[in-house]
Write a sequence for this structure.
């Protein structure tokens, strides 16, 4: 049994939240560069050019890519053969508190009704899975509010099937229009239960843009949905064009014979996430 | 799209009336930040008979909650937030003399009507380009509601802040209509 000190986790989380907010992931940067070549609308290309410049400026100045440095969302895979000396949840929240303060990141967590800011961007949203091994894998996402607001979940009937799923996803992207900062990444969770489908959708957003679902049938569905949303003509920041989304990522799980749960979690172009292992 | 128009705040009716949807604008002067919580409090305070913390006549309101200023900089990252959440408040503010708002995303019909009625515009700035836009802000100070943290009302000095006219005073709409 390996023992990991809670302080070590806090330090790693603190560094990770800052790095993720300042440096754009390589897959996103590559997607911007490709979009600059494939985007058909001049206004859309101009926006993509600004986003590339923004990435460079954030790198040069150390400023976060976006002022909305998000709610701190974590998917943690904890090896069954390790134990944390201390409290894992507290360790992560301490890292968030330190990272958001020292990194000059915005604190966006507030009471849902009084709207009083908690002041330190905690509590983080933490999903914990137990996996084999003696390591802890921490995946962090700075999830912005604008794109989260455009996300939806629904319970379709089994009869609606793939056509119903496709219609709902495309309609959602269409209605969201310019609001979630396109070009977006669309996370789709299919199956599970009412609560599980959105978790699948969010998990899907962690996948690299060039990484399709390992199931070829689901990978083909991702391609079909991406083509459908990109034919909407919304384009970068809603200025028109063929780059409405950079990717559609589907995660699927078995569901009840009576149900077809579906969730669409939209991610803005500033898809800030980072994975570390301890 | 037409050539770039340079404007300085406070904005006047004649500034507004020469703007058309799709125009590029470089805005300079003082603008005021406010987003969800600040709007709610501002209008409640005005209702209660208090003086607003800045002159509403000709004002430009920027929907932004900036990240904290690191040492040596006036402000952190400072791009626009999604505007529709302020649709509840925008028509009232335009009726009180506010001339423009800066944000991203679609506005409701009531806002577009208010722009026509009170001669106003809605500007779009590039969402998610907060580090880039921050470079055009030369100073920032909190004017009111400091307890709201990132949502406090701030007075910003901007220089050639890059904007697009999304909705003009004539009913224009910039955003692409999705082909469903």
């Amino acid at each position: 049994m390996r023992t990991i000190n809670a302080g070590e986790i806090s330090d790693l989380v603190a560094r990770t939240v800052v790095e993720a907010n300042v440096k754009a992931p390589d897959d996103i940067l590559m997607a911007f560069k490709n979009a600059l070549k494939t985007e058909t609308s001049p206004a859309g290309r101009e926006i993509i050019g600004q986003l590339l410049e923004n990435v460079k400026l954030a790198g040069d100045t150390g400023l976060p890519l976006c002022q909305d440095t998000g709610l701190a969302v974590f998917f943690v895979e904890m090896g069954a053969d390790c134990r944390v000396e201390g409290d894992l949840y507290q360790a992560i929240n301490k890292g968030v508190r330190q990272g958001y303060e020292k990194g000059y990141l915005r604190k966006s967590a507030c009471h849902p009704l009084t709207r009083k800011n908690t002041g330190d961007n905690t509590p983080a949203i933490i999903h914990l899975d137990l996996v084999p091994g003696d390591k802890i894998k921490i995946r962090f996402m700075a999830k912005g509010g604008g794109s989260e607001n455009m996300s939806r979940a629904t319970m379709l009937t089994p009869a609606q099937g793939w056509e119903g799923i496709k219609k709902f996803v495309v309609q959602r992207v269409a209605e969201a229009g310019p609001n979630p900062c396109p070009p977006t990444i669309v996370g789709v969770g299919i199956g599970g239960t009412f609560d599980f489908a959105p978790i699948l959708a969010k998990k899907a957003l962690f996948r690299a843009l060039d990484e399709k679902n390992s199931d070829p049938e689901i990978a083909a569905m991702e391609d079909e949905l991406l083509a459908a949303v990109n034919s909407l003509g919304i384009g970068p920041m809603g200025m028109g064009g063929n780059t409405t989304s950079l990717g559609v990522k589907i995660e699927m799980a078995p569901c009840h014979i009576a149900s077809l749960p579906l969730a669409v979690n939209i991610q803005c172009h500033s898809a800030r996430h980072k994975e570390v292992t301890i | 799209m037409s050539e770039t128009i340079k404007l300085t705040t406070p904005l006047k009716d004649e500034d507004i009336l020469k703007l058309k949807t799709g125009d590029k604008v470089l805005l300079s002067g003082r603008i005021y930040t406010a987003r969800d919580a600040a709007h709610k409090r501002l209008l409640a305070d005005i209702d209660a008979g208090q003086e607003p913390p800045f002159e509403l006549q000709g004002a430009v309101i920027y929907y932004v909650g900036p990240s904290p200023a690191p040492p040596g900089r006036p402000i952190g990252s400072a791009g626009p937030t999604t505007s529709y959440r302020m649709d509840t408040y925008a028509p009232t503010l335009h009726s009180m003399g506010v001339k423009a708002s800066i944000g991203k995303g679609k506005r409701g019909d009531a806002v577009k009507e208010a722009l026509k009625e009170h001669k106003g515009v809605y500007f779009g700035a590039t969402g998610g380009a907060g580090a880039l836009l921050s470079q055009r802000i030369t100073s920032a100070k909190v004017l009111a509601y400091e307890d709201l943290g990132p949502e406090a009302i701030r007075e910003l000095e901007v220089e050639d802040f890059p904007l697009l006219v999304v909705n003009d005073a004539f009913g224009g709409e910039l955003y692409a209509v999705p082909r469903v």
Q: What stands out?
A: Chain A has eight helices and ten strands. Strands of chain A lie at 2-5, 71-79, 82-85, 125-131, 136-143, 152-156, 184-192, 245-255, 260-267, 273-277. Residues 42-61 of chain A form the longest helix (20 residues). The first strand of chain A starts at residue 2 and ends at 5.
